[in-house]
Amino acid sequence: FPIQKFLQSQSIVAPSAYISTATLFVHLLLSWVAVYKLGMGLLGASLVLSFSWWIIVVAQFLYIVMSERCRETWKGFSVQAFSGLPSFFKLSAASAVMLCLEFWYYQIVVLLAGLLENPELALDSLSICMTIVGWVFMISIGFNAAISVRVSNELGAGNPKSAAFSVIIV
């Protein structure tokens, strides 16, 4: 997500959309091969999912490094980039704990559902519910991205009143 936020803050959203779309098709193909042709089942699907996430990260990083649009905004790594890490870690520790607890919560719920009387039905029902919850959260994440981009662009242009107004509009 940091690479996406870097691009979004500059109103560069099309490359992420193209990369995600291309990765979706690669993911579908590789999932089919891993699950059905190689017979890897759930392990194959999990490996392909992880690989797909890395494709997106690497492709977006390559876009930043190689594109003309990002040449002036990212000059590469420097020692100065790491100067504020202690204070950054202090600020991000609570967020990291929250994300870990969220992931662990879902994993614990899956394990507990597997202990129920009819685990196959329970896990199928849980999967449907988690998918619906994921879709609902995607709506809020989409608004989050739109608001972040709009506010950062307005603040970057020196328009704090427009930034506050754009939060109300979006």
UniProtKB/TrEMBL annotation:
Alphabetic keyword roster: Membrane, Transmembrane, Transmembrane helix
* Matches recorded under Pfam families: MatE (PF01554)
Q: What does UniProt give as GO cellular component?
A: membrane
Q: What transmembrane ranges does the database entry give?
A: 12-35, 41-66, 87-105, 125-147
Organism superkingdom: Eukaryota
Keyword DNA-binding on entry: no
The keyword Transmembrane belongs to this UniProt entry's keyword annotation: yes
Q: Which GO terms describe its molecular function?
A: antiporter activity; xenobiotic transmembrane transporter activity
User: In the record, which residues are listed under signal peptide?
Assistant: none
Task: Quote the PANTHER family the UniProt record gives.
Answer: MULTIDRUG RESISTANCE PROTEIN (PTHR11206)
Q: What family does this chain come from, according to its entry?
A: Belongs to the multi antimicrobial extrusion (MATE) (TC 2.A.66.1) family.
- What is the protein name given in its UniProt record? Protein TRANSPARENT TESTA 12
**To which species is this protein native?**
Noccaea caerulescens (Alpine penny-cress)
